[in-house]
User: What shape does this take?
Amino acid sequence: MINLGTTVTNQISVAEEIKSRLKSGNACCHRAQILLSSSLLSKYLKIKIYKTIILPVVFYGCETWSLTLREERKLRVFENMLLRRIFGPRKDEVTGEWRRLHNAELNDLYSSSIIFRVIKVRIVRWAERVARMREERGVYSVSVLKPEGRRLLGRPRRRWEDTIKMDLKEVGCRGMDWIELAQDRDRWRGLVNAVMKLRVP
Assistant: This one.
């Protein structure tokens, strides 16, 4: 089902939505290929194009995603592909041959936060807004309240709320009620900053 441009399935999975977002991001990148490959533009301007034109296409609706390691890898592969186009190859000092940049080298050249880290921050910021909603609000019900009935056998799929709890666990707030934490704006702002600075695996 398509709702406001976002793919919604009955499997509680964002895999298809992320696949669709990355496909749109690749299409946008293809249209901007001439600019990204131009030797007349600085690397700074190319990064600006990436952030202002391509990333917003990928980020649409990302606040509701429940990221798994598999989806994080897909996002990272997409970003690394774009960054390699922007920064181009590097000449090996020993062999003199041109080679593509390694991931660690891309991290050093690209000073901004990794794509899935930005998405995690946007999720946490959206969680603050959800936490302050009234329980009768539809968004709150879908995001927080548990459905009635028996769960199917097998490992449960990661929910949006599970993503929030895992991020808070990483910044030292394991087992704490995120809805209660979100009522303190200053403290939650500190948690958002902590999530942004988490080590990238």
Remarks:
- Residues 143 and 160 are 7 Å apart (CA to CA).
- The radius of gyration is 19 Å.
- The mean pLDDT is 83.
- The chain has two domains: 2-112, 120-143+157-196.
